[in-house]
Structures are given as C-alpha cells and as structure tokens.
C-alpha cells in the first residue's frame, strides 16, 4: 500500500538536544497526524494538523502542516530520556484511512 | 482523550485454532474502527475497515475468510484469526475514529502461533 516518505529513519541524540523529523508525500492530504509508539504498545497521538500552513505545539513538540499539503514536520525541543520511541507521521486524504510513514526511531542518551 | 481498549494484550495459541481479539471504545461511540497488522521494525499496515452494522472492507491481499471482523455495536469490534498458523504471528492493533478524523489506537495484541 501507499506509504509516506519519513526521514530520518533513526536518530541518536544527547539529552537536551532538539530533534526534527519530516514526512513527504506525492499526494495531497487534508489531515496530518503525528504518533509515538513505545515497544509493545499502540501508537499514541501527539499532534493533529488540519490546515495547510498550520503550526501547532504540544508542550515541547511543534508540528507544521506544509503549505503544499504534501509534507509535515515535527520538532521536539530539549529532549528527555522518555522521548525515546518510534515516531510515525500519518496522512489522511479523502477517506478515513490513514497512510503511515515508516517511522523514525529516536534514541536519547542521558 | 479518547480511550480505546484492546484485549487480550498477548495470546499464544496452537496452530489450527482460532483467536478472537476485541477492540472497544470506552468513552465514545465509533461508527468506524480499523484493524492493523505490524511486523517487527515496520510500520502499521491497514488490514480492514470495520463499519458498525455492515460488512468490513478489506484491503487488497487480506483474506476476509481468514480474518473475520464483526462490528456489532458502536463501541465494539472484534477480529477473529481463523485456523491460525505460525505465519499469522504478529502484532495486531485496532483504532477507533473520532470527530475530526482522528484515530485513537488500542494497546495492541501480540499473537504467537505455535
């Protein structure tokens, strides 16, 4: 099935550093979602974006819906050890189905 | 936030048996629920869309007779893996849709078929 291009695939950072990740698509989406998944758990919603150009924050997380509607990025500032996990972007077009990126594995060294 | 409960969290079964996984939306009604499969170190793969009161819509390549889905009420959908075999071993995750097209996910079910 269709997948989004999510990059980078993994990152190793020191505690306190910022991290950025992005997703791109060949298709236009109406909604962009960012999820975090811990090992053996289901994804947990971090941020939802509904409008092109929208910039939304949730604590140390900031995400933007690209103006072309084909991309989105997520920033995490001042990382902490509990930020480790896999981050997925997901896009939603005309139907309720979500298209997922391949995920970005984040490791934070204390 | 919306809570989706999935049960069981882990099941081990013998080859040839059937396994039922439940997905419940605890504090909201969901006319649509989704079932995903996830292999290790991979992304989520949509298996089917479960609609309350009607037949599920399966993604291409997913055997509907193998993976039976029932959405009996606005808060419950079940996935039954029939005649399970070792290649069916995987992590199965459900989600329920809420207003604004947001999907909230259950905690997943780890299925191991011996």
Summarize the structure.
The complex is a heterodimer of chains A (110) and B (114). With 110 residues, chain A is mainly β.
Q: Topology of this structure?
A:
The complex is a heterodimer of chains A (110) and B (114).
Chain A: E1 5-7, E2 10-14, E3 19-24, E4 31-37, E5 44-49, E6 55-58, E7 61-65, E8 71-76, E9 85-92, E10 98-100, E11 104-109
Parallel strand pairs in A: 2-11
Antiparallel strand pairs in A: 1-3, 3-8, 4-5, 4-9, 6-7, 7-8, 9-10, 9-11
Chain B: E1 4-7, E2 10-13, E3 19-25, E4 32-38, E5 44-51, E6 57-58, E7 67-73, E8 76-81, E9 90-98, E10 102-105, E11 109-113
Parallel strand pairs in B: 2-11
Antiparallel strand pairs in B: 1-3, 3-8, 4-5, 4-9, 5-6, 7-8, 9-10, 9-11
Description:
The complex is a heterodimer of chains A (110) and B (114). Chain A has strands spanning 5-7, 10-14, 19-24, 31-37, 44-49, 55-58, 61-65, 71-76, 85-92, 98-100, 104-109. In chain A, the strands form 2 sheets. In chain A, strands 2, 4, 5, 9, 10 and 11 form a 6-stranded mixed sheet that branches. Chain A has no helices and 11 strands. In chain A, 0% of the residues lie in helices and 54% in strands. In chain A, a hairpin with a 5-residue loop joins strand 7 (61-65) and strand 8. The model of chain A has no long low-confidence stretch (mean pLDDT 94). With 110 residues, chain A is mainly β. Chain A is globular. Chain B is mostly beta strands and 114 residues long. Chain B is built from no helices and 11 strands. In chain B, the strands form 2 sheets. In chain B, strands 2, 4, 5, 6, 9, 10 and 11 form a 7-stranded mixed sheet that branches. The mean pLDDT of chain B is 93. Chains A and B meet through strand 4, strand 5 and strand 9 of A and strand 5, strand 9 and strand 10 of B.
């Amino acid at each position: 099935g269709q997948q989004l291009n999510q990059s980078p695939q993994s990152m190793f950072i020191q505690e306190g550093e910022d991290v950025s990740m992005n997703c791109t698509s060949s298709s236009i989406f109406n909604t962009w979602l960012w999820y975090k998944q811990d090992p053996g758990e289901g994804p947990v919603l971090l941020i939802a974006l509904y409008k092109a150009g929208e910039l939304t924050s949730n604590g140390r997380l900031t995400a933007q819906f690209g103006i072309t509607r084909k991309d989105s990025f997520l920033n995490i500032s001042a990382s902490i050890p509990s930020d480790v996990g896999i981050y997925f972007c997901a896009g939603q077009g005309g139907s309720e189905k979500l298209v997922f990126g391949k995920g970005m594995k984040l490791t934070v060294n204390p | 936030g919306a809570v989706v409960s999935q049960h069981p969290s882990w099941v081990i079964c013998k080859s040839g048996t059937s396994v039922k996984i439940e997905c419940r939306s605890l504090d909201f009604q969901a006319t649509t629920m989704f079932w995903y499969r996830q292999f290790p170190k991979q992304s989520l793969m949509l298996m089917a869309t479960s609609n309350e009161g009607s037949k599920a819509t399966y993604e291409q390549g997913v055997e509907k007779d193998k993976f039976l889905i029932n959405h009996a009420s606005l808060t419950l959908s079940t996935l039954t893996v029939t005649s399970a075999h070792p290649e069916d071993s995987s992590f199965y995750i459900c989600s329920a849709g809420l207003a604004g097209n947001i999907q909230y996910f259950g905690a997943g079910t780890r299925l191991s078929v011996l």
